[in-house]
Amino acid sequence: MSALTEAEATRQVILRMEAALGDNSNDMASHFHEDFRWIGNQGCGTKPSLDAFRNNWQLPLRAAFTEREYKTDRFICEGEWASCFGHIEGTHSGTFMGIAPTNKRVKIPYMDFWKIDGNRIKDNWVSVDFAFVLAQLGRDVFNGHGWENYDNGTLTPTHPA
After folding, report:
1. Strand order from edge to edge, sheet including 32-40
2. Residue 88 lies in a domain
3. What confidence tens digit (pLDDT) does each residue in 41-96 have?
4. How many angstroms from the chain centroid is the CA of residue 126?
5. Which residues does residue 40 pair with via DSSP β-bridges, in sequence order?
6. CATH number at residue 21
7. 93-126 confidence digits (pLDDT tens)
8. CA 22 to mean position of chain CA atoms
9. Residue 68 covered by a domain
10. DSSP assignment letter at 49
């Protein structure tokens, strides 16, 4: 299979899985390898199987954020690898990290890297910007010490020149 054809096949695997997530599918097994693992950043956790992904990511996310829209900004595919960045827009209608529902519409930025094996997702490395989500819900996890304060002049760099 040519690299372009393999990359397009990889892209189609991801597009089908994303469509199933967007349609609230409860049967994701056709999209994920039997040895699937989901590796998330701090706050998101690691899911060593499809069942763990479903029970410890997919269902809690659905419970916390309803009326979800998945908006992928850009895909990059090379061979059996795919990556993307985008965001989910959802309504905060369930408890999220101890915050009671606010019914605010929030943006949940993410980046994904997938490894495809046998037309199914074998591994998924994920970074979800929960600090940004929490900020939209009124919680500053950095207690005013986030480095964007360097950008707006609130903090002054103290490092040597």
Report:
1. 46-47, 32-40, 120-128, 105-117, 81-92, 65-78
2. yes
3. 999 999 999 999 999 999 999 999 999 999 999 999 999 999 999 999 999 999 99
4. 6
5. 126
6. 3.10.450.50
7. 999 999 999 999 999 999 999 999 999 999 999 9
8. 13
9. yes
10. S
- Tokens encoding 23: 């349609």
150 in a structural domain? no
Q: What pTM, to 2 d.p., does this model score?
A: 0.88
Owning domain of residue 138: 3-142
Average pLDDT over residues 23-31: 86
Separation between Cα atoms, residue 74 and residue 100, nearest integer Å: 32
Residue keyed to tokens 């037309």 = 119
Query: CA separation (Å) from 41 to 2, 44, 107, 110, 130?
Result: 33, 6, 17, 10, 9
Q: Domain count of the chain?
A: 1
Residue 78 CA to residue 155 CA, distance in Å, equals 41
- Name the pLDDT band for 23 (thresholds 50, 70, 90): confident
pLDDT of residue 4: 60
Q: Which is nearest to 22 in space by CA: 63, 64, 75, 58? A: 58
